[in-house]
Amino acid sequence: MLDTRRGAACATALLLAQGTAQAGGFIEDSQGSLTLRNFYFDRDYKGESNVSARREWAQGFILNLKSGFTEGPVGFGLDLQGMLGVQLDSSRDRVGTGLLPVQRGSGEAAQEYSELGITGKVRYSKTELHVGTVMPRLPILISSPARLLWQTFKGGHLRSQDISGLSLQGGYLSRMNQRDSTDYQKITIAAPNGRFDGTAESDEFIFLGGDYALTKSLTLSYYHARLDEIYQQNYLGAIHQFKLGPGEFKTDFRWSLSDEEGDGKAGSVDNQYVGLNFGYKLGGHRLTVGGALSSGDSAMPYIAGSEPHLISEYAISSEFLNADEHFWHVRYEYDFAAAGLPGLIGVARFMKGTNAELPERLGGRDREETERYLELSYVVQSGPLKNVALRVRNSRYQNSFAPNATMRDDNETRVNVDYTWKLW
């Protein structure tokens, strides 16, 4: 359960803050919510594999308490987040889904785990500084929500919108807490398929950048990030949306350039990634096609456990990001609200990667991978179950990698049932 001493300290801090705050926005603008997340994860490996399946079922509880800001030119506030994960089904031969921590020694999943996040915040005009537990969602770092509980970081995150049309962001992070963990650790680099040395650690991740709305239909982005002594990365992006005939056309361009930083403790980093999506929406239909090229001596680096900002985003069995990999995909989405069924959305997608380069022990050059992805989601629109969200995803993934590679042939199913109760 949550550490009672930490919980008491946080509650005391919140009460003191409320007592000293002017009676304005600190309390009046506060918000409280409780999210219930039920998650079933089933990854069934095919072919040669030491592990036949990763299969677990768990229930999550996410409590968010957010204050407003005290009155005056400089406002102060406090946010609290409590997260609890409870095992519903697991066994020692099926652990490793990322839903639950695996206990050392026994190799079994924990019956429950929890964490408490505390974030102090300061606001001046349209600039806010958050210090403590933060969850960035930026092109160079996306805190992952893809399991039962969120990945979190410890540090500071500054956001400013004082200049019209321009959103500036910067930050310093020193520790990370993975989705299936209860403690903060030093920051590491993702290293599937032996790309980098995943044991290399850093105490410092720094980022700076922003988004600028050049016009109502065109937004440009630039970000720089540095994981001390491991890698640095520059990102450029552009999103353009405009009317075309009876529908709406969208282009999404993403470019990043990465190399090792300092001593390069995780090994050589040398990557250029270029990706482009084209999408067209007409009524309830949305069709997206796109592709990406990864070039250089390594894959594109990103923080372990986070979600890389790629054209292949939302794939669930692979990120299609090996060195020299060429990727393309086709995605079709239909919103059944256009047919009189609001809340129901279906997605079908095909993804393929070619020319991937892995270490020789994992297959070597000219490797391929494909994923067929289906999704159906529904949000209840009325009645006692209003706003309950159901999401079912299924994929079939195949590759020509060696059997000991991180990504292996599999059939995967994920089922989520989420509900957020607004406390006030």
From TrEMBL:
PANTHER family: CHITOPORIN. Residues 1-23 form the signal peptide. Keywords: Signal, Transport. GO terms for cellular component: membrane. This is Outer membrane porin, OprD family. Pfam families: OprD. The keyword Transport applies. Belongs to the outer membrane porin (Opr) (TC 1.B.25) family. One of its GO terms (molecular function) is porin activity. It comes from the Bacteria.
